[in-house]
Fold these 3 entries.
Entry 1:
Amino acid sequence: MADWFGVAPEAEFGPGSRTTIDVDGVPVLVLNVDGEIYAVEDFCTHDSLPLHDGSVEDGEIVCPFHGARFCLKTGKNTAPPAFGDLPTMPVKIENGIIFVRDARWD
Ligand code: FES
């Protein structure tokens, strides 16, 4: 099982916070949306462009390039022009630190 990667102290990552970290060579976007922490690959499945500047609406991230939408909880693609789902990463908080794990090889 892959290692957990530290993201930030929970106390410094309040609602509205977002960052992109490198997880085994994959950029992972971590967001706090209304107190819930989500982690998704920072690549839109349409044209492999970064999602980190996208807006968040109704629990979905909107690609800033062509408007594809993805559920942050499940990664499911909910609007074209992308059709592939977005890989999500498990999140945990331990001793006040937010961690994500690369689950691609589970
Ligand atoms: S790169 Fe995201 S919708 Fe085109």
Entry 2:
Amino acid sequence: MTGSMGQAEKRESEGVRLNQALESSTNITESLIESIGSGIIITEMNDTITYINQAGEKILGYSKGEVIGKPFGLFGLNEKLNVSHSFLDQSDNLDTRREGRMNRKEGNEIPVGFTINYHLSLSGEAIGKIIIFRDLTKVYRIQEEILKMDRLVSLGKLASGIAHEIRNPLAGIKTTAQALGEEMGKEDPKREYLNRITKEIDRLNELLKTFFSFAKPQTLLLVPCHIKEIINAIIPFLIKEIADKGIRFVETYHPKLPRIRVDKIQMHQAFLNLFLNAIQAMPGGGELKIEANPVVIPSLDGSMQNYVRVVVSDTGKGIPPHILPKIFDPFFTTKPKGIGLGLSITYQIIKKHGGTIKVDSQWEKGTSFIINLPETFENL
Ligand SMILES: Nc1ncnc2c1ncn2[C@@H]1O[C@H](COP(=O)(O)OP(=O)(O)O)[C@@H](O)[C@H]1O
Ligand SMILES: [Mg+2]
């Protein structure tokens, strides 16, 4: 024997090697598809689902077993531009990036970006379709936030322009009215008219002040500060109303609360607006609660960020679900004498501090505003 293999033996071992290579490449392809972040669904030409990857399962809330063999229509994929015909029948614009909505197993709809490609056999024949999709919920949320900030900024500019134009003539009117009052006798019956004019001028001045706080220059004077300090500073403005309405005021601060970086004047304004709303929501009394705790939240780059979470809650009338998305909009109000700027000012201030604000409300039970503010660096 020379040590070389016989012909048959050689062929067999080559076959094994080929098989192994094929198997491992199939494994690689499969593990690749499984670990991709986008959802992938493969169907036959008649839209019957033959495959879904892990990301797809997670995005849609179904398991493989629940969807394989079912029609793709299960997800009710609906294109944003209201195209009514079936997507899987479109052959002209396959593979262009599109946006739409899909139904999850739990019944909720999510926004998705998707593409549809033909699944081609080695001979180039279309044997099915490949749908690749991404969950756009977070992207949509960020877009909405940006739009909201845009609206606030342009409104701020408009407001300051108008306020400047009105303020000077108003001051003129007030001086003239005062001069008229000085010439009038004390018992003059016309004095009543003058009083009314002065009162209306004062009301307009108040309105302008609100506008100005909305249009204030954007620079922040940041200092390290304990949230308790901010709250203590505004309580005196509210104490009378809290007492008159029979509201119980409860404060809970975590014993090891870190300080936050704030522009004190602006932060006073932000919390004052929240407290005023809470008080106004409880005309017959109730409980106004403030709670502050340290929290750690992962940021976009994966690092951990320390925040102070402040929750302001009331046991007032609550906010009906259909108006919840509007409450931070400038000039949105449900109050007969409201201006509707309170929450949009608060929103703007919290954002400028690198924080977030969210609302959680139950009709007729109460409302909570949840604010996260970044912890200060000790050397500040
Ligand atoms: N704590 C709260 N309880 C119930 N409704 C609230 C509360 N805070 C805000 N709202 C709702 O949000 C709207 C907008 O509030 P805001 O911007 O402060 O304007 P305004 O107080 O002038 O109406 C209010 O008119 C009210 O409908
Ligand atoms: Mg208000």
Entry 3:
Amino acid sequence: MPYSGLSLEGKVALVTGSARGIGRTLALGLAEAGADVAVSDMAPRMEEAHGVQAEIEAMGRRSGAYEVDVLNVPAMRQSVDQLVADFGQLDILVNNAGVRVRRPALEVSEDDWDRVLDTNLKGLFFCAQAAARHMVPRGSGRIINIASQLGTVAAPNRSAYCASKGGVVNLTKVLALEWTALGVTVNAIGPGPTVTPGLLETDTRSEEELQRDLEAHMPLGRRMQPEELVGACVYLASPSASATSGHHLIVDGGWTAI
Ligand SMILES: NC(=O)c1ccc[n+]([C@@H]2O[C@H](COP(=O)([O-])OP(=O)(O)OC[C@H]3O[C@@H](n4cnc5c(N)ncnc54)[C@H](O)[C@@H]3O)[C@@H](O)[C@H]2O)c1
């Protein structure tokens, strides 16, 4: 029998940006661990989101697909309220929606900066706040922010991204200080380079350049797969993690060990 301390039976989770990539895989992983999982993404990705919803329902869990653009704070709040009305509760928020811009600092535009910071940091904060407003009155909840190993170390051509993820790592600690005593733990996961549609769209390096980078930075010797993040997420969402809060759980193939 699986260890019951990792069971998410009876819990309701919301994963932002879960139509594809890491968010999709985490949504499916939480469902496999027993949770009912609401999928959410921006309007253009709702068809994919409904596909993920169907996969979760096929596992025998409740699901739903909600349009949540984290850049639109009032509409996001309404969707979270609707989800709570539909499912009766919200126990787990995975703040996954994120964007990346790879550009030398000298060329970063104000639009680049705003898009990355507004999505990865501002949007994440207000989603956490919207979820916590439901969790705190019930005295329980789990918020899991998807940060990055680049929230703790730097990489060239990632000024806005590194600034946003560094912000997420420290914001996670602030929210943990405020909400842990109220029953809501707040943690982050710091993935290393992981094969997703978003990564492949923005990484235009040649295979040779990529191999050089992996040899220099990645003891694992390859990019990660999204499935390699599921265990960390299930743990942080589970009863086992009741005393884990304010933590940045880095899962990066050893990138930050160098
Ligand atoms: N893939 C990696 O190597 C890697 C490494 C470290 C951290 N991360 C983080 O993991 C998260 C997921 O990344 P991914 O690689 O799966 O990317 P992805 O682009 O494949 O998926 C991101 C999802 O977020 C959604 N999204 C973007 N902006 C949104 C918004 N305003 N509102 C709601 N949804 C929005 C997208 O539509 C998409 O479905 C991001 O926060 C990213 O920074 C990824």
